[in-house]
Structure formats: C-alpha cells, structure tokens
Write a structure and sequence with these properties.
Elements lengths: L1 H7 L14 H23 L3 H27 L5 H20 L8 H23 L4 H26 L2 H21 L18 H30 L5 H33 L3 H11 L2 H19 L7 H7 L1 H18 L4 H14 L7 H30 L1
C-alpha cells in the first residue's frame, strides 16, 4: 500500500505553477536536437526520391516518440524522482536511436527498430503502472496504448529483419497503425476502446511543449545555415542567400509565435473536450509544421552550397516544399484553434506555387529568395490583418 501511495504523488497536479514545462523536460528535448540534425544531414547528403521517402517515415517516427513522451510528461510530475529516471532512460535510448538514424534503412535497422519499440512500450507501461493506484481508467487507457505499441513493434522488428523493399512496407504499416490508434481510441479485443476524454490533459502545457519543440527545429535551421555559410561564404551570392535564410527562419518564428501559438494554447486550455482538441492541435496538427522546418533547413543547405547553379525540381522541392509544409501546418492549427482561415497563409502558398513555375528558368539562389519572400509576405499580411481586426474590436 505504501508503494501505491508513493505512485499517487507521481501524477501532475492541475495548477498554474505545474502546467509549465519543467527543466527535466527541456533537458530531454536536447536529444531531439541531435536527432533532427542527423535527419537533415542525411537528407542533404543524398536527396533522392527513395531517401525522401525514408526520411519522411523517420520524421514520423521521431515525432511520434517525442509527442507521446510529451503526453506522458503532461500527465506525470517530472519533479518526482521515478519520473525523472524514466526521462533519463528515454534520453539514453533516444541518443542511441539518433545515432542509428542515418543507417536506419541499412545496417542499423534492427538496433533502430528495437530501441524504438522499447521506448514506446516501456514508456506507456510505466505510465499505466503510475496511474494504477489512483486512476484505474487512465491506467487501462495506457495498458491499451502498451498493447498497440507492442503490436506495432512486431511490424517494426519484422521490417528490420526483412529485405529493404519489405522493410519500407512493414515500417510504413507500423507507423500508420500507430498514428491511427488515438483516432480509434486504442481498441483491444475483449475490453473494447478507451472511453472519450479519459485523460486529464493540460492544454497550456501541451502548447508550451510543442512551442519549445518548434524553437528547437528553428534553431537547427540556424545551425545548418551557419555551418554551410562558413564553407561557402566566399562564393558569389552566398552572403545574400545566408541573410535570406536567416530572414526565412525569422519569418517562420513570427508566423508561428506572433499569433498562432497563443491561440492554440487558449483553445486547448478552454476546450470542453481537451483530449480530442489536444490530439487535433498538437499530436497531428504540429507534425507538418515540424516536418516543414526540417525540410526548410535542407533547402537552405542546398541554396547555400549550390547558390548559382541552375535550379532543378530536385533542389526546389526542398527549398519551396519546406515553407509550403510549414504554412499548411499553420493553416491547420490556426483553423482548428480560431475557426478562421488565415488568408495570408493561402497567399503565401500561392506565391510558392508561382515560384515553382519559374524553376526551369532561374538559379537556386533566386528560388531561395522567392521562398523567403513568400514567408515575409505571409507574415506582413497577417500582421496587418490582425492590427486591423484589433482596431475594429477596440
């Protein structure tokens, strides 16, 4: 009974002071800086259709690890030592996973899959055990999550042991299986699906954690740009392209943080169905934002290292595709949070589409400058629209 009483203290209290991100959580996020850098370097080194498909699957896997850990730290108190030990264990496993990422479809397939499955099943099993003395319904939900993670784990391990073609198929099925699970509420034969709104989610905490992850991704684009600028600063146009890349990152920060992040936090905190809203806004809604920033970092690396080369759709797909994904994700989040379609973002996407039509006739630096211009126009239009809306309300 004493052990059960101890575990009751592991659950996060629902008050203002405990809804903020904790230092152990921020420490845990450092692992994903390494993982994101590994992914962007792998893409930049071998940017082919096969590599893009592999990287897309790995981005889905890395995001799923991070967002599911964020759900757990949203519910558990990271100031409690057992929860901190869990985070430290996940950090070690995450570093090993990041090391395996570049060769996840090669010789490190089995270590990658085994570590991934261990993190997913171990974390959810620990959370079920933590909830058991106090909240049986939440504990049963995480038992269902554990069962689904174990079932998906069979596909991950089988894929690691299979030939390359089957590996891509089996891992694609595994990630689709996992992404569908929350929408289906983790049905398990014999006990059914988890009831709706089982978990006591802090929308403010989820919003802050996702915002910090976006900051990490944006920081990775600056690191990538700085590293490549050092190698290519003597080339023509590199300084201008570097300034453009920095401005692009600043525009992405502005587009996400000036308005959207606060709206998402408020919508999640005030929702009558916080669990469903948190899944829509954060579990799924932030994925294209993060993927877009990673792709933008790859595009900036291409623009810096091949500035004056004739543009090709290979390079343009990263230079333009990153901002396009980022804007699409922001449309999703802002539409879900405020029930208002941001026309500024639609205008930005239209500009990117127009620039794509110029690709056969211009060089990479012009494409990069155009991508930055589209983000800048988006930010300015939204800023003016918000100012006008505020003036009318006042």
């Amino acid at each position: 009974m004493e052990q059960g009483d101890d575990r009751r203290q592991w659950i996060r209290k629902r008050d203002a002071s405990r809804s903020r991100a904790s230092f152990p959580e921020l420490f845990f996020d450092l692992v994903f800086v390494f993982g994101l850098i590994q992914l962007s370097h792998t893409l930049a080194a071998d940017f082919t259709s096969a590599t893009i498909g592999e990287a897309a699957l790995l981005v889905l896997a890395v995001w799923w690890l991070w967002i599911n850990t964020t759900w757990v730290t949203n519910l558990l108190d990271t100031d409690r030592e057992p929860v901190r030990f869990l985070l430290f264990a996940l950090m070690l496993a995450g570093i090993l996973l990041a090391i395996a990422l570049p060769e996840a479809f090669g010789e490190h397939a089995l270590p990658f899959a085994a570590i991934y499955v261990l993190i997913q099943t171990g974390r959810s099993a620990f959370t079920a055990w933590a909830f058991f003395p106090q909240d049986r319904q939440s504990a049963e939900t995480f038992l269902r999550v554990t069962a689904w993670s174990a079932a998906a784990g069979c596909l991950w391990i089988a894929g690691a042991l299979a030939q390359f073609e089957w590996r891509l198929v089996l891992w694609g099925l595994a990630i689709a299986f996992e992404y569908a699970a929350p929408l289906l509420r983790y049905p398990v034969p014999g006990i059914g699906s988890a009831p709706k709104e089982t978990l006591s989610v802090s929308g403010e905490h989820m919003a802050e954690r996702c915002a910090l992850f976006v900051i990490i991704c944006l920081g990775e684009t600056i690191l990538t740009g700085g590293r490549n600028a050092v190698s290519h600063m003597t080339a023509d146009m590199t300084f201008i392209v570097f300034c453009s890349a920095f401005l692009s990152t600043g525009c992405m920060w502005w587009i996400y943080f000036h308005y959207g992040q606060a709206e998402a936090a408020e919508a999640a905190e005030d929702a009558t169905e916080p669990e469903a809203v948190a899944h829509n806004l954060f579990t799924y809604g932030h994925l294209p934002i993060v993927a877009g920033i990673i792709m933008a970092a790859v595009g900036e690396e291409f623009a810096l290292s091949h500035a004056r080369e004739e543009a090709s759709f290979k390079y343009a797909s990263a230079i333009l595709g990153g901002p396009a994904l980022f804007l699409a994700g922001n449309i999703w989040v802002k539409l879900a949070a405020a029930r208002h379609l941001p026309l500024s973002h639609v205008a930005g996407l239209a500009m990117l589409a127009a620039i794509a039509g110029l690709v056969p006739f211009v060089s990479n630096d012009i494409v990069a400058l155009g991508a930055t211009a589209s983000l800048l126009v988006t930010a300015v239009i939204e800023y003016v629209a918000l100012r006008q809306r505020t003036t009318v309300v006042a």
